[in-house]
Amino acid sequence: MTATQDKPAGTATPDTRTINLIQGVTEALAEELERDSRVVVFGEDVGARGGVFMATAGLQERFGRGRVFDTPLSEASIVGAAVGMAARGMRPVAEIQFADYIGPGFDQLLSQAAKLRYRSGGQFSAPMVIRTPSGGGVKGGHHHSQSPESYYAHMAGIKVVMPSTPYDAKGLLKAAIRGEDPVMFFEPKRLYRASKGEVPNHDFTVKIGEAALRRTGNDLSLIGYGGVMPDLLKAADALEAEGISVEVIDLRSLVPWDRPRVLESVEKTGRAVLVSEAPRTANFMGEVAYVIQEQAFDYLSAPVQQVAGFDIPYPYVQDKIYLPGANRIVAACVKALNY
């Protein structure tokens, strides 16, 4: 069954239960390991320890060392092994301990995973998932807090996903594992236990490439993904208190991204504010802004606004200033409204 969820989950019903985002990840991995013998899970400390954030806790004990196992501290080897396994018919799910660490495996992704289907004329493919905690907000410092998703959005041939709710984390991860393409699956670490919501008791997936409408409105479109989504909703609440109707869209997927839903919203409201915590220059949201001005220019009542991180390494001490909090988002919305 494929399902979508437009609004954050509320109170659990007899057909659902409430979990947090990291539990959604763990459940997705467990269910796919159970469902498909081709699925394997591996990475640094993912076995007996269960990963640095415990996302794989209990999986090795349940499925054995042949299905869930530790690797050396070598991201190039982790990604390279995933490519080889995928090419030979397996369904590897590799964890990179922090998104900041993917660099050594970058060439394997760019030159091998992204190209395999095309360079082989369709004889081989790379149905693999690279899971990795991403983003700031947990006092991780310069090398544990970056948001590098834009690099991978530029790699033609790789899908890029970042959920913000337990429902999406579980449903999107299951869809990624079952798909036929390599997927970069970024998990906003500050939401691992902060984001709670209901998920169905039955098997489900969330289609990659469909955004979620978190809130309807008529005056302005507020668009984001990942760790910033709670701040978007706080900003929308603050503006609603002043009589401003804000529509909130969670992209959930960057490649592919939901152009029709974004354009439909902007054509209705005439104003768009785009939010992410990655550095501003070459930010993926610049692509969204371009498509809006290219295809919805005649509907715009104000220039598209963007709220992002700054063009500096992630600042450990001043992370609250760096991250696009509700105050910065509201200020951008007011600028658009007053144009």
CATH topology of the largest domain: Rossmann fold
User: Spans with pLDDT under 50 lasting ≥5 residues?
Assistant: 1-5
CATH class of the largest domain: Alpha Beta
Number of helices: 12
The major beta sheet can be summarized as:
7 strands, mixed
Sheet/helix structural class: alpha/beta
Please state roughly what percent of the residues sit in beta strands, choosing from under 5%, 5-15%, 15-25%, 25-35%, 35-45% or over 45%.
15-25%
Could you tell me how far the N terminus lies from the C terminus, measured between alpha carbons in angstroms? 45 Å
- Overall strand count: 14
Helix coverage percent: 25-40%
Topology readout:
Blueprint: E1 16-20, H1 21-35, E2 39-43, H2 59-63, E3 68-70, H3 75-87, E4 91-95, H4 106-113, H5 116-119, E5 129-134, H6 149-153, E6 159-161, H7 166-178, E7 183-188, E8 196-200, E9 212-215, E10 220-224, H8 229-241, E11 246-250, E12 253-255, H9 259-269, E13 272-279, H10 284-295, E14 305-309, H11 319-322, H12 326-337
Parallel strand pairs: 2-3, 2-4, 4-5, 5-7, 6-7, 10-11, 10-13, 13-14
Antiparallel strand pairs: 1-8, 6-12, 9-11
Helix pairs in contact: 1-7, 3-4, 8-12, 9-10
